[in-house]
Amino acid sequence: MDAKHEICTMQILLIAATEQEVQPFIAANPGFDVLISGAGVPPTLYHLQKRMQQMAYDLIIQAGIAGTFTNDIKPGQTVLVKQDAFADLGTEQEEEFKTIFDAGLADKNEFPFEDGWLINKNEIFAGSSLVAVKGVTVNKVTDDILQKRQICHQFNPQVESMEGAALHYVCLQEKIPFLQLRAISNTVGERNKTKWKMKEAIESLNIELSKLIKGLTD
After folding, report:
1. CA distances (Å), 49 to each of 4, 7, 29, 127, 170, in order?
2. How far apart are CA 172 and CA 15, in angstroms?
3. SS3 115
4. 209 pLDDT exceeds 90?
5. Residue 68 three-state SS
6. Taking the alpha carbons of 145, 151, 156, 159 in that order, is the dihedral positive or negative?
7. Does 7 have pLDDT greater than 60?
């Protein structure tokens, strides 16, 4: 079997927190294997693990929107998240946040972590035109100045989501190739949703998702 045929027969799962985020792709690709997990870490962990028990996948792609911490990434832009972390998993005392690693509750280099990060080493990063970024995953979307400052100090991330680290954690543990694709809808901490670019982000996300899938299956 040649390499091209192997790629064409790849079993790919698309996972998203909400159907809205990937609806244009679903509409254009009926029958594609899609898992709508629900928002947040717990449902992502549960439903992804359950699906992986039912089917063997060659690649899992998570697609969704995210907030950005930096002006270098603009609302509406789509990026690939190379490394992610559970940014609010830890302890807090007198407005000082410590990760579970800093608090001595876990080893920051115990698999699948590397220096506290969940790092995706998929070779596609080398050839992709999309910017590769550091992400963090939170249980509460950041709208608090203190929380934002703590996250920036601890992780210096570029984007924030509510599910990304869950994908990284499960796929690294199970040794299944994966990609996290995120389109920026807003600046982290922006409370005025009229300034969010949700429509533009979803449009960009689905365009880049289609390109990615086409490049893998053509």
Report:
1. 29, 24, 24, 29, 7
2. 16
3. coil
4. yes
5. strand
6. negative
7. no
pLDDT tens-digit series, residues 53-94: 999 999 999 999 999 988 888 888 999 999 999 988 888 777
- Residue 90, beta-bridge partner list: 99
Tell me: pLDDT of 203 over 90.
yes
Residue 70: both structure tokens together: 């930096």
Beta bridge partners of 61: 14, 179
Pairing type for strands 12-16 and 59-68 reads: parallel
The SS3 call for residue 124 is: helix
- DSSP character at residue 175: T
Given the structure tokens 């832009």, which residue do they identify? 77
Query: What domains are defined for the chain?
Result: 3-217 (3.40.50.1580)
Best CA proximity match to 57, nearest among 25, 32, 79, 27:
32
H or E, element range at 202? helix 198-217
DSSP SS3 for 86: strand
133, 64 Cβ separation under 8 angstroms: no
Nearest by Cα to 63 from 206, 215, 217, 218: 206
User: End-to-end CA distance of the chain, in Å?
Assistant: 16
